[in-house]
Design a protein that fits this description.
Elements (H helix, E strand, L loop, with lengths): L1 H41 L2 H32 L3 H34 L8 H25 L2 H31 L4 H33 L21
């Protein structure tokens, strides 16, 4: 019995260390999204370059999380809810890594846009959308740490708001392109930026669904309704 308690205590300590990495990774991703949006608004190429460089650290953290989780499984042989927790951590790390990639893509296109004529109001709208997604991601991670299925469900429902913001931007960019063909290049880049932000919202929702699974043992029964109605749903994958 004492041996079992010792093993479980060691597992808890190892899991806490991995969860600390996840939260650090989440903070870095949130900062990357905010910085990329600010770089677009202020036309700050140096900040955009910093976001691109910092993505390597996010990738390295994901590799470290995966290695630690593999070690945990091999060394501690977790079962039932403990195993579910480790598998959830791996999936959350993967979602965060993808969010970091999307932030990097934002920064790349921000650098290109700094050389083009500005589209009125676009940068502010993009930053507002980025802030909405950043909060969605933060709440998804808070739901994980707190094992709060209700907060996770709220994050999941809020994805429709992000989709609606994306749809509104898509229509706005189309209008600018039709009014003046000289706006086409800038609006295409802005569209891809908006799509990348929308995809971050999708990954935040995926994290929330993993939290629901972790807490309840079941994935949400009702299908998530996507409000993205655009015909062109491309993005930097």
């Amino acid at each position: 019995m004492a041996s079992d308690l010792h093993i479980h205590s060691a597992f808890d300590r190892d899991l806490e260390a991995v969860q600390a990495m996840i939260m650090k990774m989440g903070g870095m991703v949130e900062a990357a999204i905010a910085d990329a949006a600010r770089a677009l608004e202020t036309r700050d190429d140096e900040l955009a370059e910093q976001v691109r460089r910092n993505d390597r650290a996010i990738d390295a953290l994901e590799e470290q999380v995966n290695a630690e989780c593999a070690r945990l499984i091999a060394l501690r042989a977790p079962i039932a809810s403990d195993l579910r927790t480790v598998l959830t951590v791996i999936k959350i790390a993967g979602s965060l890594e993808r969010c970091g990639d999307f932030a990097k893509n934002l920064a790349k296109r921000s650098s290109v846009l700094s050389q083009l004529a500005q589209i009125p109001g676009a940068s502010l709208a993009i930053r507002r959308m980025a802030r909405t997604v950043e909060l969605q991601l933060k709440d998804a991670l808070d739901a994980y740490i707190q094992r709060d299925a209700k907060l996770a469900s709220d994050v999941r429902q809020r994805d429709a708001e992000v989709d609606q913001m994306y749809n509104a931007l898509f229509r706005e960019f189309l209008t600018h392109m039709m009014e003046d063909p000289r706006n086409i290049t800038a609006c295409m880049h802005l569209h891809f930026i908006a799509k990348n932000i929308e995809r971050v919202g999708d990954h935040a929702t995926t994290i929330a669904e993993q939290v629901i699974y972790l807490v309840t043992g079941m994935m949400p029964e009702e299908a998530r309704i996507k409000a993205d109605k655009t015909a062109f749903a491309g993005g930097d994958e």
